[in-house]
Amino acid sequence: MSYSRVNFLLIVVLSISISIHIAQTPISSEEVDKFFRHYFKVHIINGFKSNEKPFIIHCYSHDDDLGEHTLWMKDEFKFKFGVHMIIPPTYFWCDMQWGTKKKRIDVFTMDTEAAVCSDTGNCFWLVKETGFYLSKDQNQWVKMYYWPFDV
């Protein structure tokens, strides 16, 4: 047998052995989802203390225009999507307006939100007078953005 044929057979045998071992290793679908999650849901929640000024959002991706939405106190706008496994990476942003204040924020990127939200598959954004907060479970919130200063 030639050297290259022996190497090929060795690779095949090792591949089969590894495949059998992996197939016999119990793993829950929850564990698989944490590492290979294909779907996420973004929630944007109006956390303002009053309805004095409307909170207006307009969200987009490279492929989609999700439309303009007016959220009143405690209203929520949510959308679910599958992530791109190839280029371009999945990316959603929203233009947000509250009275005279306007801000464009990234609500889902593969670098930040996918990493934060992969455990639950949910990215919660709470928008308040003080800024924009991100959570994966609505228990722990991290301030990610501020509203711009009034001009």
What brief labels describe this structure?
Immunoglobulin-like; 151 residues; 2 domains; 3 helices; 4-stranded antiparallel beta sheet
What does this protein structure show overall?
This protein is an alpha+beta fold and 151 residues long. The model is unreliable at 18-35 (pLDDT under 50). The longest helix is centred in the first third of the chain and has 22 residues, at 3-24. It has 2 domains: 1-36; 38-145, Sandwich (Immunoglobulin-like). It is built from 3 helices and 9 strands, in the order H-H-E-E-E-E-E-E-H-E-E-E. A hairpin with a 3-residue loop joins strand 2 (55-61) and strand 3 (65-71). A 5-stranded mixed β-sheet has the order 4-1-7-8-9. Strands 3-2-5-6 form a 4-stranded antiparallel β-sheet, with no helix packed on it.
Summarize the structure in short.
It contains three helices and nine strands, in the order ααββββββαβββ. With 151 residues, it is an alpha+beta fold.
Please describe the topology of this protein.
Layout: H1 3-24, H2 29-36, E1 39-46, E2 55-61, E3 65-71, E4 76-82, E5 91-98, E6 101-109, H3 113-117, E7 122-128, E8 131-135, E9 142-145
Parallel strand pairs: 1-7
Antiparallel strand pairs: 1-4, 2-3, 2-5, 5-6, 7-8, 8-9
